[in-house]
Q: What sequence folds into this?
C-alpha cells in the first residue's frame, strides 16, 4: 500500500530509544516530519540523520517535530542516538508494522535481510493528514529534505 498526499496518516504506538511509548496522536497540533531509515550505524543513514541533526533549528523554527523510525531495537537506537548526538526522537518499529502501514518496507534488503524500512520522508500536518510523501527504492539515496522544509514552511 502506498500513501499519498491528502491521505490520513496511519496511527502508531511505538517505543522510543528512551523506552517511552510514542503515539502519533501525541503530536496533534504540530507538524511532523516522519523519517524512515533502513539501519542505524550505516553510512547513508548516518549522513541523512546527522544533516537533520545539524539543521534541527530549521525544523523547530517552523513549529515541526522530527521523528525517525527504523526496525532496529530501541537499545540499538539509544546507542546510535548517543553516539551521533541526535537531537530528535528515534523510535523502534521492531515488529515492522508501522513501516508496512506507510508502504516503507523492503521485502528483501541487502545481505538477505528481510523487512528493513525503506528510506522515506513524510510530512504530517497538525490534524494528521499527509502533506508530503517520498518513499525511496534505492537505500543509498536521501529524501529531498529541502522539499520537506518547503512544505513545512507552507504549513506554518
A:
Amino acid at each position: 500500500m502506498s500513501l499519498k498526499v491528502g491521505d490520513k496518516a496511519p496511527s502508531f504506538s511505538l517505543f522510543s530509544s528512551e523506552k517511552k511509548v510514542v503515539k502519533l496522536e501525541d503530536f496533534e497540533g504540530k507538524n511532523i516530519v516522519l523519517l524512515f531509515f533502513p539501519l542505524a550505524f550505516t553510512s547513508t543513514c548516518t549522513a541523512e540523520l546527522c544533516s537533520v541533526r545539524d539543521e534541527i533549528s530549521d525544523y523547530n523554527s517552523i513549529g515541526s517535530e522530527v521523528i525517525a523510525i527504523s526496525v532496529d531495537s530501541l537499545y540499538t537506537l539509544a546507542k546510535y542516538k548517543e553516539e551521533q548526538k541526535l537531537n530528535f526522537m528515534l523510535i523502534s518499529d521492531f515488529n515492522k508494522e508501522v513501516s508496512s502501514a506507510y508502504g516503507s518496507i523492503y521485502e528483501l534488503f541487502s545481505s538477505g535481510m528481510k523487512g528493513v524500512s525503506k528510506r522515506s520522508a513524510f510530512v504530517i500536518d497538525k490534524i494528521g493528514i499527509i502533506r508530503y510523501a517520498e518513499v525511496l527504492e534505492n537505500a543509498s539515496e536521501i529524501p529531498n529534505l529541502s522539499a520537506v522544509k518547503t512544505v513545512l514552511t507552507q504549513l506554518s
Summary: The longest strand covers residues 64-70. The mean pLDDT is 95. The two ends are 29 Å apart (CA to CA).
